[in-house]
Amino acid sequence: MRPRTKLQVQVLALSQALPDLSIDQKNWAFKNCLKHVAFRTKKALSCLDCGHVWVGPPVNKTLISRLHTTCDCPNCGVKLEIQDSRNKKKLEQRHIIIALIDVVDGFQITRFFELNSYHKAGQPVHQYLWEVVQHWFVPNGKTTIVARMAPFGYNGGFTGDLEIRPGNVSANIGYRVDKYNIYADYTYPKVKCLPVYKRNGFKTKLKNIYPYSLFTKLLTDSKVETLLKSKQYKLLSERLNSKSHLIDRYWNSIKICIRQKYFVKDAGVWLDYIELLSFFNKDLRSSKYVCPKNLHDAHNKLVAKKRQFQKLKEAEKMRKQIAEAEPSYQKEKGHFFGLVFTKGDLTIKVLESVREFMEEGDIHKHCVFTNKYYKEKDSLCFSARIKGASVETVEVSLKTMKILQSRGMQNRATSFHDRIVELVNASIPLIKKRMESIKVKSKVSKQQDMAAVA
């Protein structure tokens, strides 16, 4: 849209004068943000970067083949990951978002570039890098968005020119409403920021964080500032995403961790663990409990203890709980039932009853049932199965359309983890399609109700 205020006119003029990425920045993106692959057949290897084909370790089940999982291209010198293949000739890497954080004429700016890469055996790679979104911040809290059109959210791609966009972005992550609150898969390491953000603890480390949420909350949310200055990056990510309420609830325990210099490396498991401590009325201000030496072991022991408690003391109550929770779960998530993703011997299906949550928790010894994940309105849980046997439980956010977690026995990743993540990410459009049909049905139902009243 056309700029309507003095601020928008100034931002658009500065935006149009911004330089393109430098050669060094582009080379960094191509080198660090893409997979570098070599396809291996019975006869030769093919570098998908430069297209060079050469004779190498053959694809078979011998020891020498299993030992050679990487190689260096003799032509371009790039270290490549070897993928054994018979028919696969193409590889696409699309919608990779790279952030560049800079200061321009008193504005704090975050520039987002979309990287797409197309590979074919025997041919040089074709790469396409273009700018899609800009966030212009001023310390008084005003933010201006310059972006290309994203009609279906940024996961659906961009089109058109860079223009001033409506300021409907929220620092709280959501689906569609916040389509310009864009997630950066990678951040260029050379970062510049205004002194006011440095004062509040801004660092160059921005992994697993939405830059828009960080810059808008860093000057107004004291907990964000504290987590950033104490280098509790995993908890900071949860504060800026979907578990902000748990950070508030257990803030005193987090302060104990900060004082003890205990760095939470897995925020999701730690928050679940603290909830379990709360369930057993443990002292949440004692470093003995909130700073375990082995988080996963301590978490798993409490999960087992809670499950045993539920089995021995609340068997009847559990049956009633399932019966009472089932209608609500069926109503809330019933429109997703029947979603099944399959690739080879891997099948991923939606959990279609509260009892299935309990079965998943029993199989893998994790807390998907004990912590009532079936009540989470903004997430959808799946069972990943190999030849019919459950291997991991997957939770997908219905707001961000990202995988929140995928965990197998005792919250650990299995040997099938990468295959599961790849299949779920490839199937996100099917989940979105279900959400679209839900909105259409809801709109039609409201219209019918209004017509009936009239």
Which term fits the overall shape?
Answer: globular
User: What's the average pLDDT?
Assistant: 85
Task: Quote the beta fraction.
Answer: 15-25%
Query: What is the straight-line distance between the termini?
Result: 38 Å
Tally of helical segments: 16
Number of beta-strand segments = 16
Structural class: alpha+beta
Could you list the spans in which at least 5 consecutive residues all have pLDDT below 50? 173-177
Task: Kindly describe this structure.
This protein has helices at residues 6-16, 23-32, 63-67, 195-199, 211-217, 222-229, 233-240, 244-249, 251-259, 267-279, 287-290, 295-313, 315-333, 354-364, 417-426, 428-453; strands spanning 37-40, 45-47, 53-54, 70-72, 79-84, 90-104, 107-120, 123-137, 143-149, 159-165, 186-187, 340-343, 346-350, 379-386, 389-397, 403-407. It has 454 residues and is of the alpha+beta class. The protein has 3 domains: 6-187, no CATH class; 221-311, no CATH class; 320-436, Aminopeptidase (3-Layer(aba) Sandwich), CATH 3.40.630. Strands 10-9-8-7-6-11 form a 6-stranded mixed β-sheet, sandwiched between helices. Strands 3-2-1-5-4 form a 5-stranded mixed β-sheet, with no helix packed on it. The chain has a 5-stranded antiparallel β-sheet with strand order 12-13-14-15-16, with helices on both faces. It starts with 5 loop residues before the first helix and ends with a helix. The model is unreliable at 173-177 (pLDDT under 50).
